[in-house]
Amino acid sequence: MENILNKYRNVVASSTDAGPSNSPSATDLQIQMVQYNPDDELTAMETLSSLSQQLMGKRLEILSHHELHIMEKILNASILSIQNMKEFLLKKEIEKSKQREDRITKENEALREELEELKQKLNPSCSSESNSLKRMRLMCDDQDRIAGKQVELEDDIE
């Protein structure tokens, strides 16, 4: 635990020695927010727990205006990072959907072609059956007409 605190003190000391930069990074902002006070009785774990709660919007009343401003920058950077990740994932999902659509379209086209081939193979046999049926119907119609004319002739003769 002491080693962790010493490393933390070295990081804080080196960041304050480096001087202010024009645009502080998220790490610099976090270091500024969690400055270690040797007189403080909080352990490193309690400090991290406190920071975690503050980042979730709890126990903010103990922070100064400057610390709240720093936290706001950290959260804005986090939100931007989250939005970028969401956008990346959505684009990836859209790309997958387009690929799936293309694949399904190709499959549908192949099935249509296969259906057309099957129809063409079946149509000649169906059309020959249809022709046979048509001939039979015509013959039946002719026979009915002949029979009807015979009945008329018989009626005329009587």
Automatic annotation (TrEMBL):
Naturally occurring in which organism (per UniProt): Spinacia oleracea (Spinach)
Coiled coil residues, start to end: 94-121
Residues annotated as signal peptide: none
Record protein name field: Agamous-like MADS-box protein AGL15
Domain K-box positions: 45-115
InterPro entries registered for this protein in UniProt: TF_Kbox
Keyword annotations: Coiled coil
GN (gene name): LOC110778888
Any single Gene Ontology cellular-component annotation: nucleus
Top-rank taxon: Eukaryota
MF (Gene Ontology): DNA-binding transcription factor activity
Pfam families, sorted: K-box (PF01486)
